[in-house]
Amino acid sequence: MLELKNITLHYGQSQILHGVNMVAEKGKITCLLGVNGVGKTSLLKAIAGVHNHSGGQYLLDGAEKKAASAHHLAKAGVGYVPQGRDIFPLMTVRENMEIGFACLDKSERTLPEEMFELFPVLKEMQNRRGGDLSGGQQQQLAIARALITKPKLLLLDEPTEGIQPNIIQQIGRVISFLNDQGQMAILLVEQYFEFAYQLADHIYSMRRGEIILDGKKSELKKAAVLETLKV
Ligand SMILES: Nc1ncnc2c1ncn2[C@@H]1O[C@H](COP(=O)(O)OP(=O)(O)OP(=O)(O)O)[C@@H](O)[C@H]1O
Question: For residue range 4-25, what is the model confidence (pLDDT) as tens digits?
Fold first, then answer.
């Protein structure tokens, strides 16, 4: 589904990613771990087309994506749940979800009932403003908005950040459920180690813009993964 070969990324003169290789497969949860500031969000931004990579190859379903816009990539099947959620505070919950319609044909532009089954709170609050929701509710809204685009690849940037434990559990169950459907590749960036470790099929760990560990969870020792996360 997703294949990155030797990806580099710059902000102006400053190089942030130094040759990242990564694969995320359909029906699998791939986790990218790393302490603050190593480049995890920058990598997701490159995959989502928010800030394009400067070198290397980015392949989606075998097709190279070079300098592609966020809109093109969303239409091509990349669903992005950004860090901080980026909910529009003055728009209603329903309107926030409907933003995802921009990627769909006119005939497909209805809110699927399953979305409200996954996130019942969004049904109750669909006419409230996005800014009135708690952090956890906003996170659920951000995931729902990405799912409405019917992604083949779902990018989640620290979905547990600043969220209370019961909602974290709920989000974990939704991620597992989506994965069990086998229809998408999920790439999860997390700093909450136990949450990510529990969900992961494949783990990457990053330091200073480079992948320093890569393997199937079943073949990696937990202590070895934790070792890569020491500051
Ligand atoms: N727009 C930008 N312009 C310049 N530098 C940036 C920009 N965005 C991020 N950086 C820098 O790039 C580096 C990687 O940041 P990034 O947000 O990708 O890391 P991260 O691993 O996601 O960190 P965190 O876990 O804190 O979100 C940091 O040194 C950061 O200061």
Answer: 999 999 999 999 999 999 999 9
CA-to-CA distance for 73 and 160, rounded, in angstroms?
25
* Nearest partner of 38 among 156, 206, 155, judged by Cα: 206
What separation in Å is there between the alpha carbon of 122 and the centre of ligand 1? 31
Question: What pTM does this model have?
Answer: 0.95
Look-up: residue for tokens 């379903």?
61
Instruction: Please give the share of the chain, as a percent, with pLDDT higher than 90.
Output: 88
CB 186 within 8 A of CB 14: no
User: What distance in Å separates the CA atoms of residue 33 and residue 55, rounded to the nearest whole number?
Assistant: 22
For residue 47, give both structure tokens: 């995959």
Residue identified by tokens 């459920």 is 177
Q: Which domains does the chain have, with CATH numbers?
A: 2-227 (3.40.50.300)
Atom of ligand 1 nearest to the CA of 43: 18
The Cα 57–Cα 140 span in angstroms is 32
205 lines ligand 1 (CB under 6 A): no
ipTM of the complex: 0.95
Ligand 1 pocket, residue 38 CB under 6 Å: yes
